Amino acid sequence: MLSERRLEVLRAIVQDYVGTEEPVGSKALTERHRLGVSPATVRNDMAVLEEEGYIQQPHTSAGRVPTDKGYRLFVDRLTNVKPLSGAERRAIGNFLDGAVDLDDVVARTVRLLAQLTRQVAVVQYPSLTRSTVRHVELLALAPARLMLVLITDTGRVEQRLVDAPAPVGETVLADLRARLNSRVVGRRFADVPQLVQDLADGFEPDDRPSVQVVLATLLETLVEETEERIMLGGTANLTRFGHDFPLTIRPVLEALEEQVVLLKLLGEAGDSGVTVRIGHENFHEGLNSTSVVSVGYGSGDEAVAKLGVVGPTRMDYPGTMGAVRAVARYVGQILAES
After folding, report:
1. Average pLDDT over residues 117-134
2. 255-274: b or e for each residue (b if 16 or more CB lie within 10 Å)?
3. What pLDDT score does 233 carry?
């Protein structure tokens, strides 16, 4: 374990390197930070930090820069995440409050995160596997043609056309709508198949085939829509960090184009805490020069999806973690109120 003083020296190196983009020397450290020790002691501490793999000397520079291991310790030992200013919090609220539907919420969140952090923003749509049913609507379009509308607690709206084997009267339609909602509203998607399996038995024999078709369409919708969707924004921000990517930015851009990679990067939706993966902790080789900061969001206590940012390892971790957490909190409030 590092002593508190050496940890303080590492913190100072990380802060200076993130702020100046220049390798940090012992003289600069003692001038900029009140470390309470002589430059010689700081040089000795830096030698130990380098020996233990927390910092390294790039090419011919006299200064040092943090390694992935150094950033990891810095993040793990963060005493506080940088809070947003009152103006920033108001700006987030004003920007997100104007959203008209879930697609708009996600699109605004991506733009907002990219602007706040000046990194690449990634937002996952609420997962239907973690959602509950808010309402099922059935509309008659023609005597034997219906529209099934499924609304989730996170604001997702799914519509399906249903071609019934025979005309469906308004009385039967209203009865089916009422019985369906009484069973599934407020229930998780995973529970719905069991809840409706005997629903058709309560209808007249002539109406049961049509009811079965409606139920089959509902269950198909639940299965089809478990596919996850992601929105990405702010990729152009990476061009500001060209020198942070050792060879080329191309592997990073190629990795970001893959939906599966992005979903794995964000991690499991149920994990609602802030997660930081640094450099080689990212499973995808193309992202070994980046860090990913992600957090779960949802309309209740449990996260239904994740959002986060991707940027170079030379990142303002306290500020980025604060921004990601604050935006997730606001999005959760909007979903809860929608």
Report:
1. 85
2. bbeeeebbbebbbebeebeb
3. 92
Residue labelled with tokens 């030698």: 47
Q: In whole angstroms, give the CA distance from residue 143 to residue 213.
A: 15
Separation between Cα atoms, residue 50 and residue 66, nearest integer Å: 9
Residue tagged 């942070």 (tokens): 244
Mean of pLDDT over the chain: 87
Residue matched to tokens 């719905």:
192
Cα 267 to Cα 272: distance, rounded to the nearest angstrom? 10
pLDDT greater than 90 at residue 335: no
